[in-house]
Amino acid sequence: MTGLVLCGGKSSRMGSDKGLLRLEARTWAQTAADKLVALGLPVKLSVNKEQYGDYAAVFSESDLITDAALPELHGPLLGVLSCHLQCQNEDLFVLACDMPLMDAGLLKDLLHRHRQQPSAQAWIYTNDDEPEPLCGIYSAKGLSGILTLLQQGRLVKHSMKYMLDHLSVSTTALQAHQKTAFRNFNAHAELNGM
Known about the structure:
By secondary structure, this protein is α/β, with parallel strands linked by helices. The protein has a single domain, classed as Spore Coat Polysaccharide Biosynthesis Protein SpsA, Chain A (Alpha-Beta Complex). It has six helices and nine strands, in the order E-E-E-H-E-H-E-H-E-H-E-E-H-H-E. It has helices at 28-37, 52-56, 75-86, 104-116, 140-151, 160-164; strands at residues 2-6, 22-23, 26-27, 43-47, 64-66, 92-96, 122-127, 130-138, 169-173. A seven-stranded mixed β-sheet has the order 5-4-1-6-8-7-9, with helices on both faces. Strands 2-3 form a two-stranded antiparallel ribbon.
């Protein structure tokens, strides 16, 4: 299994690259990567071509995966499938960089579920019955199937949530006290009190 930190967003509402914002001396991308490394995983970071130079100044270039030439795709699904193309035999533990409050215990529980339910193709949490696909584990086999659907023109929507409709998914509902961990931040005004 490989950890994948998704950093490839435009951060247009934030006004600066969210993955390079700092939380106590560490960038958000480093904070997310550290949590995956703590699980014993090698970690890659998904970036777009415009971000590559800025991230190469902070991370090893060998840890960066730039978006593949899949012109019909954008957003998180492009980052996930770009990594899958480079690590085709690896399940991917995906974590978005803009959830800096993610609890390490929730990540450990997700990894435990992956081991306990090997027949699933995706392992995620749900928040009020809605999936939280930007913190989840995706099997190599499941991602290969999604890539095939894309290549055949049968993936009519290109969102992570739509992708889940085509996978066998193991879900766990978040408890009220766990929901803060999934808060993502999109504007500077939301950072007050962090």
